[in-house]
Structure formats: C-alpha cells, structure tokens
Design a protein that fits this description.
With 354 residues, the protein is α/β, with parallel strands linked by helices. It folds into 2 domains: 122 residues, Alpha-Beta Complex (Aspartate Aminotransferase, domain 1); 208 residues, Aspartate Aminotransferase, domain 2 (3-Layer(aba) Sandwich). Helix content is 38%, strand content 17%. Strands 2-8-7-6-5-3-4 form a 7-stranded mixed beta sheet, sandwiched between helices. A 4-stranded antiparallel beta sheet has the order 9-10-13-12. Helix 3 runs parallel beside helix 9 and helix 4 runs parallel beside helix 5. The two termini are 34 Å apart. The mean pLDDT is 95.
Length: 354
C-alpha cells in the first residue's frame, strides 16, 4: 500500500476480496465521462503503441480550449498530485502555512521537500485577524488553501485571497487547490487573478469532473513566467498519450449536454441527500457543501458505524487523519440515486441496532 490514506481504493479492495456495493469514498462525477469518449474510445487504442508527445503544447492547447484559458498559463501535469509535489520542490518558500482541513498531500509534499509546515484550522470557524497574526508571527512565505475546500466543500477562496492581498501580503506565495472548481461552473475560480499575480498558483484536476481518474490529468494555472520555470523540471512523458487523445476529443466536442446533465443531476441528488441527512439528524451532523461531496460527523459510535458500512460493502472516506477533524468525521461523495438510497438504507439499519 502507498503511504497515507485516500479514497478511491476500489481496485485494491476488490483484489483483496471485498464485495463493494457502492463507493462513496472518491468524489468523481457519478454520471461518467462525456459521451464522446464512450463513443470513440476505440480510436484511442492506437495511442497505446506510441510514445506520448514530448511537446507540452499538445496538451496545453486542448486544455486551454476546454477551459477557455490562455494556453501560456497552463502547466500540464500527471494529475493534480504531480503539480502539488512539483511546487513543493521548486518554490523558494521554506515556511508554509496550510489552511486546514485540506487534501492531505499538500502538507505531506512540503514536509517531504524539507519545508517547515504550519497549520491553521478554518473549522468550524476562524477569525481573519488571527490568520494575519499567525502569518506574521511564523514568518510565513507560502499559504495553501482550497477553493472550494476539500473535504468541507466551502466556497470563500476569492474573498480570502483578496483580503490577504489587501492586507499587505503582496509577496506571499499563494497556492490554491481548485480540484473541484468545475462543479461550480468556474464561478468562484481565481483564474483571472493569475494574469496579474505572479505569486499565485492554482492546482487543477481534470479527473473529478470529467470522470477520468485513471488517466491522471491535471494542470497548474499560473503566470507564464512561472510556467516556463516549472516546465523545465517536468519529467519526460509525465502525461500519457491516451490523455492527449482524450483532450483532443473533449476540446473539439460540444459538451453542453454533458455540463447541463451534470449540473441538473447534481442539484437533484444534493437535494435528496440533504433531505435524508435531516432525517437522521440525531445520528449524523452534516455540513453544507457547494460541490459533489459532504462532510458529516457520526455522533454515536463512529468506529462501529464505519465498520458496519464496510461490512455492508459501503465505502466512505474517513477523515480521521485530517487536521482539525479526526475520528467520527467522514466524507460522502454524491452518487447516483440508487446508490444514495442504498447508503441511507444502511444508515437506517445501523441506527436500529443502536
């Protein structure tokens, strides 16, 4: 097993004999990739026998077309995770402040790179002046936070970023995880800010929204000067040839129906899940989310709850190792209706046994 604990371990668990009925541990678009990939997947087989492109522009251009960005601002990566580790090694900042809870690979990457990592909890609430005081007291050189945050699904990154810049931290390196921004329709992205701010880095993922985690697609969105520096340190063939073919197909296709279906289905299933959470308010405390997952806390016997779900073949993401959360906190991905119904059927069965 790799170090650390992540969701989406379905293959390993199935190989070990676990019967999985529903996987809520990885927050992937449950309605699958766009139809064009399913219809034309066979065309990509030829790319298996060829080396992937070494010209990064062949990845950069379709990514830019897909998102409407300037290609010069895009650094293609082997998933968002490669971007995280690349930044942790190459940024000059030595004193890093991670606003928690956040995807655990950020703190891990900077620690493995020999940086000094500090943590500041945003949960359940925080005072901005306390954050400012910590940045000053600890002589912080780089700040990391989520927009929207993972695992809480909160949106507030734009206002926080603006507050920090207006507070005088113009030289502070800011790294923002925007891996779930697509589910927001880009409405809260800091993508426009990178045009003027050379100290801003956005880490993006193609895998969640487009449901292609096995292809490991992502990018860092930042000023072209930064892209040119970072690109020199990318390993050859970091991105695979199938991903390039997928990007070509997606960027050339009309994805309006895919976007519309995802938005409508997500809205409907979130309404359903929130209604069900309210039914079980005596057992589960849930936290509002703007994206495709929810954090919830089990009020009674959380260990038994987790084991019961596992025994029933239901996977959720334990947040026990997340700073500021701990045992009893879990993340639930939004899935299709039949899976969402199954989850609460199992919760009801557990509740009857208490």
């Amino acid at each position: 097993m790799i170090p650390g604990s992540h969701g989406g371990r379905r293959i390993e668990l199935e190989r070990s004999g676990v019967n999985i009925r529903a996987d809520f541990s990885a927050s992937i678009n449950p309605w699958g990739p766009p139809e064009v990939l399913k219809e034309r997947w066979g065309e990509l087989l030829r790319l298996v026998e060829a080396y992937p492109p070494l010209d990064w522009s062949l990845y950069r251009k379709p990514m830019a077309a897909l998102y409407g960005y300037d290609p010069d601002f895009i650094l293609p990566c082997n998933g968002a995770t490669q971007g995280i580790y690349l930044l942790s090694r190459l940024l000059a900042a030595q004193r890093i402040l991670v606003l928690e809870p956040l995807f655990t690979e950020y703190a891990r990457a900077f620690e493995l790179s020999g940086k000094v990592v500090f943590r500041f909890s945003l949960f359940p609430a925080f005072e901005r002046d306390h954050l400012v005081k910590m940045i000053q007291a600890k002589r912080i050189e780089a700040l990391v936070f989520g927009n929207p945050s993972n695992p809480l699904g909160e949106v507030g990154g734009v206002s926080l970023y603006r507050y920090l810049r207006e507070a005088g931290f113009s030289d502070l390196t800011v790294i923002v995880d925007e891996a779930f921004q697509e589910f927001m329709g880009e409405e809260t992205s800091l993508s426009e800010a990178v045009r003027k701010d050379r100290n801003l880095y956005l880490v993006r993922s193609l895998t969640k929204y487009y449901a292609i985690p096995g292809l490991r697609g992502g990018f860092v969105l930042t000023h072209p000067d930064n892209v040119a520096t970072l690109e020199r340190y990318l390993e050859p063939w970091s991105c695979n040839g199938i991903l390039w073919g997928v990007l070509e197909l997606l960027s050339a296709a009309d994805l309006s129906s895919f976007h519309g279906l995802t938005r409508e289905n997500l809205r409907r299933e979130k309404d359903f899940l929130e209604t069900q959470f309210r039914r079980f308010s005596s057992l589960l405390e849930w936290y509002p989310s703007r994206v495709n997952f929810y954090t919830f806390r089990v009020k009674e016997k959380p260990g038994d709850f987790f084991r019961f779900l596992c025994a029933e073949g239901i996977l959720v993401r334990s947040l026990a190792e997340f700073f500021g959360l701990g045992e009893g906190f879990f993340r639930l991905a939004v899935r299709r209706r039949e899976e969402n119904e199954l989850f609460f059927e199992v919760v009801e069965e557990f509740a009857r046994k208490l």
